[in-house]
Amino acid sequence: MTISERIFERLEQLDMTQKELSKRTGIKETAISEWRKKKTNPSSEKIIPICEALNVTPEWLLSGIDAAGSRKDHMDYFIVNKNTEIGKLISCYNELEPSFRERVMGYAQAFNSLKEKKNEK
């Protein structure tokens, strides 16, 4: 199954129109129609907005493999929107000097240990 076929399958599952997908992603309706008519796929910069609108992972959209389902190995990466709280945290972390990154990791590990101890009680 192609990427565009998965998109249209998911649209049907969600009972969403191409017009609604266009509104949610900012992709022109004509472009979406072209994917169906010409059996082409969206360009790479459109993948993340499509995934967000359809509530699917990029891995599923690109390959049909659900990270939590049909693959034995878990994914070794996350895909995070830069505008979310986690995305902003990662951006800040990436701007830190290595010594400060180590301190942040230490704090995170300490908080995680506290949480685990609390859950044991």
Descriptive account of the structure:
By secondary structure, the protein is an all-alpha fold. It folds into 2 domains: 3-63, Orthogonal Bundle (434 Repressor (Amino-terminal Domain)), CATH 1.10.260.40; 85-120. Helices cover 64% and strands 0% of the residues. It is built from 7 helices and no strands. The chain has helices at residues 3-14, 18-25, 29-38, 47-54, 58-63, 85-95, 98-120. The chain is elongated.
Short synopsis of the structure:
This protein has 121 residues and is an all-alpha fold. It is built from 7 helices and no strands.
What about the largest sheet?
A: none
Rounded to an integer, what's the Rg over CA atoms? Answer: 19 Å
Q: Helix proportion of residues, in percent?
A: 55-70%
CATH topology of the largest domain: 434 Repressor (Amino-terminal Domain)
State the separation between the terminal residues, measured CA to CA.
49 Å
Q: Which CATH class of the largest domain applies here?
A: Mainly Alpha
Number of strands: 0
Query: Secondary-structure element sequence?
Result: HHHHHHH
Count every helix, treating DSSP H or I runs of 4 or more residues as helices: 7
Q: Any idea what the shape is?
A: elongated
Tell me the name of the CATH homologous superfamily of the largest domain. lambda repressor-like DNA-binding domains
Low-confidence stretches: none
Oligomerization status of the protein chains:
single chain
